[in-house]
Specification:
alpha/beta; Rossmann fold; Dihydrodipicolinate Reductase, domain 2; 2 domains; six-stranded parallel beta sheet; 15 strands
Length: about 425
């Protein structure tokens, strides 16, 4: 294979990957699909400016027929798994944007499609690849802080100002219907990627509804919290949601048996490392900005982290084992995602939930039919509302969504 022929499904979020692929020596963009014509045309123009002619499709079924080796899924976050399964079964490699799956049943189907197809599946959890989180992974694997005892991952992002631009006034947009704990992998993912440890149990909690978000059409709790127990007994607090803080907080802390690491709360390029020496409570502290491990990452999207996911995906397809070792595979992707699904069940039941190890066929069989989620078209008779019992239950009026749509079309903020 000289160059990997890549299609991109989702031209809005996918534009980051498209721009990188247009300049890749190892890949070429051959097709782009998006139902929103202006985004599709903008992606086509970017390809044209790079001297390439790319096929543009508004319908996925037409896009699916195009000649391509691999597909980047950058469509709606609650719809990735079914498209991934279909593409894998057709012999295409897949890189999925956040999130991996919407239900445990989808997680099982995805894993089995990867195993049966033998194709590459990688998860584009870019927050694993900040200069700081990648360095935390390197130091942890080198034993600098010993075995993990406790960690925190925090992704606080108040999206109220951009809500019209990311939901378009659609009542049924996935962001308006997701549970408070659904979008968990930005906070939990980097901890799991750094340590290689598997979650075995989770308890869920959520903050109260935010009236400023109800006025924009969103109904769930303001933030989700997962308290996760890992296979070695370590605890992880994962928190994410739309609390008030500017700039938003992307922060990680890891405490080991003889040291700790944490990112700088107001400058996420900086990492603090404390290493204990020969005596208890005696050690050294270091603060620095780690360098990126790949040339070309500096200055790219999401603090440079976007570069890595696409690079590792293409290189993995070409047989680069070092790239495969750094990327997030399907098993780790599911480990990152399903604690959020189960945490919402925990919120509703008031009990901790066991996290199945879906590497094991016998564990898959227990949840193969588990479609519990807040998306009615996926859940069927296992549907649950994204609004927990203690919050305001009444429907949000059509006028709210009409106003959000007006703001989107006018280019106004929320």
């Amino acid at each position: 294979m000289s160059k990997v022929k890549v299609g991109v499904f989702g031209a809005h979020r996918g534009m980051t990957m498209i721009r990188q692929l247009l300049n890749s020596p190892d890949a070429e963009v051959t097709a782009i699909c998006d139902k929103f014509r202006p985004s599709l045309d903008a992606a086509g123009k970017a390809a044209e400016d790079a001297g390439l002619k790319v096929a543009l499709y508004e319908r996925f079924d037409d896009f699916f027929q195009h000649d391509m080796d691999a597909v980047v899924l950058a469509n709606y976050a609650n719809e990735h798994a079914p498209y991934a399964v279909r593409l894998l079964k057709s012999g295409r490699h897949v890189m999925s944007e956040v999130l991996t799956c919407a239900t445990l049943a989808e997680a099982v189907a995805l894993i089995e499609a990867v195993e049966e197809s033998g194709r590459i599946y990688q998860y584009a959890e870019n927050y694993c690849f900040f200069n700081t989180t990648a360095e935390m992974r390197r130091l942890y694997r080198a034993g600098d802080i010993g075995e993990l005892m406790y960690a925190e991952g925090e992704y606080i992002h108040d999206c109220s100002s951009i809500w019209p631009g990311i939901t378009y006034g659609e009542r049924d947009h996935w962001r308006n219907r997701m549970s408070s704990t659904f979008y968990c992998t930005h906070s939990l993912g980097p901890i799991l990627h750094a340590t290689g440890l598997r979650p075995i149990r989770v308890g869920g909690y959520e903050g109260q509804q935010a009236e400023f978000m109800r006025k924009l059409g969103e109904r769930s709790g303001s933030c989700g919290i997962e308290m996760v127990t890992l296979e070695n007994g370590a605890l992880v607090k994962s928190i994410h949601g739309g609390l008030k803080r500017e700039p938003g907080s992307i922060n990680y802390e890891m405490y080991g048996t003889h040291g700790s690491m944490e990112t700088e709360r107001w400058d996420r390029s900086q990492l603090h490392v404390w290493r204990e020496t020969t005596a208890n409570c005696v050690g050294s502290h270091e603060k620095y900005a780690p360098t990126f491990s790949l040339e070309g990452a500096e200055g790219t999207g999401h603090g440079g982290s976007d570069y890595f996911t696409t690079y590792y995906f293409v290189r993995s397809i070409l047989g680069d084992e070092a790239a495969r070792a750094e990327a997030v595979d399907v098993y780790r992707a599911v480990d990152m995602c399903i604690p959020g699904i189960l945490a919402y069940r925990s919120i509703l039941t008031g009990k901790e939930e066991a996290v199945p190890d879906l590497r094991l066929p016998e564990e898959r069989d227990k949840v193969r039919g588990d479609t519990f989620c807040t998306f009615a078209e996926i859940a069927g008779d296992q549907y649950v509302s994204s609004v927990a019992a203690q919050w305001r239950q009444e429907e949000i009026g059509d006028a709210v969504y009409a106003e959000v749509r007006r703001k989107w079309l006018a280019g106004e903020q929320g």
